Amino acid sequence: MQCDEAQALISASIDGEVSDVGAGELRQHMAACVACAGVQADFRRLSQQLKSAGREILPARMETRVRQALAQATAEQRPVLVRGKPWVQQLAAMAAVCLIAVFGTWSFTRYMESESRIEQDVLSAHVRSLLQDSPIQVASGDPHSVKPWFNGRVEFAPEVKDPAAEGFPLVGARLDYIGGRRVAALVYKRRLHTVNVFVWPSASPGDAAPRLIPVNTYNLLTWRHNGLTYWAVSDLNGAELQQLQALL
Amino acid sequence: MSSRTTFEQLALPHLDAAHNLAYWLVRSRPDAEDIVQDAFVRAFRSFATFRGGDIKPWLLTIVRNVAYRWLAGRKRARNVVSIQEAFAPRAGDSVGEAWIASEEPSPEALLIGAQERARVLTALAGLAPAFREVLVLRELEELSYNEIADVIGAPVGTVMSRLSRARGELRTRLGALIEKEEKDAM
Predict the structure, then answer these.
(1) What is the value of ipTM here, to two decimals?
(2) Looking at beta carbons, which pairs linking B179-184 to residues 24 or more positions away fall under 8 Å?
């Protein structure tokens, strides 16, 4: 065994960290090596001196300081949980309100736009029908002739009535184009006034009570019944238009 | 019981050891105090990762890491503090506090005497940090080789050889100090 190897074992033996085999080998070396015997004595003394020298003195304030730092660290951790959450909730609530407002406004405007567009379409179709030679493609006062005429022309079967006895004779029918779709148009007379009644399947379910919309000098009356949307339009007064509605 | 109470009960008894290691690594009292505070806060924050058992090696590992980060951060041109600076009493120290282990010196302290203590600590201060820390952990903190290996993140064999070399170096330096004192006395 070399002396530097022995020195490592001496050091470890002082610390009680040497194996039995190592201890045996060390004893053999020590018996023959005076220098290493001196090293062992010195190492022992050094170890003793260091142990006796003791730790660096801990300032009395250190414990208070650390306790305060730990308390502060705890306080800093908590707000992250307590203050952070409502902040996130507030943000989420604000975002939700914004979203609802935006979506609400958007769908309302869209609804209003489509409503007024249909009004415009209905009125235009009515006026256009009066500009032409005849507002009808099929001339018949007989609902049983008019209703089958729509077969294959529109994808629904409009209800056709002839309230001639009440002063609203059915003149005939035609096809028209309103709100981007083909619709059934029924034409009635009231004295000299022409009444166009446009019919198409409703987008929304359920019935809706008649609503009178005066546009310029015309009167528009709309309602929903049995899955169909009706728009009656004429220069007839509102009361008489509603009278016709009740008969259909 | 809050986790802070648990942590304090386990960790605060080792404040002394933590401070001692920090001091011997950076050899500056105010810095050692800052390092200890920082290390305890870090230890508390990662207390969840502590797997039980003896908390002392775990705590000292953190102290050591903080101290080394501090040393790296300082990157002082002069890495070795002069002996006078290291051992001269500082502002706030009572005279002699730096020289005596406790208010009431232990029998051992009286036995080896102030001069001998000063000499061995001066020699220790002159060692490289790698040697200094193994000696502090072994002789002052009385950790086993396995525990020291955990703290310094090295194999047990390295701990053994490093301690041996540290003792050899300490022995040489102490011899030189004694020689110089004798020469000065003459």
Answers:
(1) 0.75
(2) B181/B119
